[in-house]
């Protein structure tokens, strides 16, 4: 097939699951529906971030560490769905996996709305995480299959709508908060894109995955997922996703007293990310995937350090730097694997996504515990911990609590900045390796 064919809305593929004949696939509609599904996934992140401290902590009487464990289960669920989805996508087809995602989203949101404590919130969040994982497990190989000659560019184009969905969810949560609606209504808003993507996918035909259609066996796929380069990329995925998603999930708490509405900072970060991913094509051409990852690590590290020292409206500048840094992390990690390790197939992309979410599930409670400890450590010795933590608004103790939270958030962000420092070294090595590989293939 020539490159021009991939610019058309409809393209002919072999039918999935051993069907006969030739299947005409509407790439434009499938790509559009995939982005709606990713918006639903992202909105669960944004609305959860808005509800973390002030709602879940108060309503269910949870500590920040408990909230971290509870919300972190979404990432465990995501990881499980991604890993198993990597196998199931080839066996059952991408459409079936997306039906699983639809059911998981509906059940998870409904159960969250009716939660009454730690364990019910834990279980409902797990369901949402599984649904989110199935969306990525199906849609990442779908995009790679639909656009085989522009994988990194189109995966960035697809992942525009993760930050885009966080912007939508964040603005929805902020607006609903202004009119003092219940937190359950904020969660229910997620149902809108869920019903839309469920309806769209139901009507569309799906191709085989690229790995299956190219004749690569399952044995070859598994072998490719055990190569040193792939394992190195999995390790890096742990660090990139912790830097990006771990910070994004906690930022409304860590910067809640920085003088700027924290949920709007989350919207601002993801707005910049959405714009950046929209123009990923020229950046990929200029830097190549490994160069993009090195650039992202340097800028993300600078952004985290700046955030830890900023206050008031100077936080906006620091937030912008951090946002630029994490913009290309997730889709470019997937794009690198899809381009340079194509035999890993849907399983490789699923392992990468699963590793990313697994790392976040571990870093969330860790960040919560660090924040809790820093709050206690920052309380002046002339006051007791209970006097400050239980202070009433308008009192001197409450003012001290506000200042203590600012210091605790700053210390936590400085600790997280260690992650991109490791990534800088890792991606320098990856860039050197990639350039050598490119030369040998000329």
Concise summary:
The protein is an all-alpha fold. The protein is built from 19 helices and two strands.
Strand-helix topology:
Layout: E1 10-13, E2 23-26, H1 27-59, H2 64-92, H3 94-113, H4 118-146, H5 151-159, H6 161-178, H7 183-188, H8 191-203, H9 210-213, H10 218-224, H11 228-254, H12 262-278, H13 280-309, H14 314-326, H15 329-340, H16 345-378, H17 385-389, H18 396-416, H19 418-440
Antiparallel strand pairs: 1-2
Helix pairs in contact: 1-4, 1-6, 1-8, 1-11, 2-3, 2-4, 2-16, 3-4, 3-8, 4-16, 5-13, 5-15, 6-12, 11-12, 11-15, 11-16, 11-18, 11-19, 12-14, 13-14, 13-15, 13-18, 13-19, 15-16, 16-18
Structure characterization notes:
This protein has 442 residues and is mostly helical. It has a single domain (26-436), classed as Up-down Bundle (Growth Hormone, Chain: A), CATH 1.20.1250.20. It has helices spanning 27-59, 64-92, 94-113, 118-146, 151-159, 161-178, 183-188, 191-203, 210-213, 218-224, 228-254, 262-278, 280-309, 314-326, 329-340, 345-378, 385-389, 396-416, 418-440; strands spanning 10-13, 23-26. The chain has a two-stranded antiparallel ribbon with strand order 1-2. Helix 2 (64-92) runs antiparallel to helix 16. The radius of gyration is 22 Å and the shape is globular. It starts with 9 loop residues before the first strand and ends with a helix. The relative contact order is 0.14.
